[in-house]
Give the backbone structure.
Amino acid sequence: MEVTREDVGTVRAFNRFYTGVIGVLGEGLVRSPYSLTEARVIFELAQREDTEVLALRRVLDLDAGYLSRMLARFETDGLVVRERAAEDARRQIVRLTPRGREVFAMLDERSVAEIRGLLTGLDPGDRHRLLAAMRSINGILGDRPRGDAFVLRPPRPGDLGWVVERNGALYDEECGWDRTYEALVASVVADYVRGHDPERENAWIAESGGDRLGAVFCVRREDDVAQLRLLHVEPAARGTGVGAALVAECVRFAAEAGYAEIMLWTTALQRPAHRLYERAGFVLDEEEPPAERFGDVITGQVWRKKL
């Protein structure tokens, strides 16, 4: 699909807006004498004891002359020292001085304080959406590997509460469902904990880099029928294979636990999830008459898969 002038304008407008938000158009970054580029150099140098100048230039994609002039200024100010590498005199090494480390600590502290202030001023829902959008941009444009860059792990303390909270928030935002849906999720989670049979029931959290991306539960429906419940994938992780992996793991566990069939209940609204279920081998078995649930009129569906 062709990139339109409107698309370009959207990106440029966002860039102008966000640079204003983080303050790089003022006299100095985080009320300091240093520009954004100068601060980036200081931050990069602080990550290790010694840095090769050529490697620094490549990492930050800076013009050689521009970087050289900047380092010379830093050297004059007592922030860095430069010297030739002992093993190869053609290579130049740069390191922060104790004074340079103090400047880094100041920039880091002020940056953390400004970001914390920005996030504190948002309500929890807006804060989550903002952070999810930032992770999504980073995942799409950054160097992080996609698709298999996550793990599925058992729930840890705090995860079950997160499942309830995220299901309640997401279905409110995306479907307009009321708090009775969150209450249902809480009861499903509570039943899972109270009557948990580890041989026949399980749950998984998808995680990447410490961020929770989604979850799913496999519970006993009948002696020979398992049920897939509470599948959800965070918006920023959709399209990366997380949902398919959660469904596949649930199906695998149910088969190994000795169930003859696995089923799930969903609604006609959840079309993206339907595609996941179809690819995993589920078949739509029953569609219920429309009924009032969760503050909406919902058409329930039962999907099944033989194991």
Q: What stands out?
A: The mean pLDDT is 86.
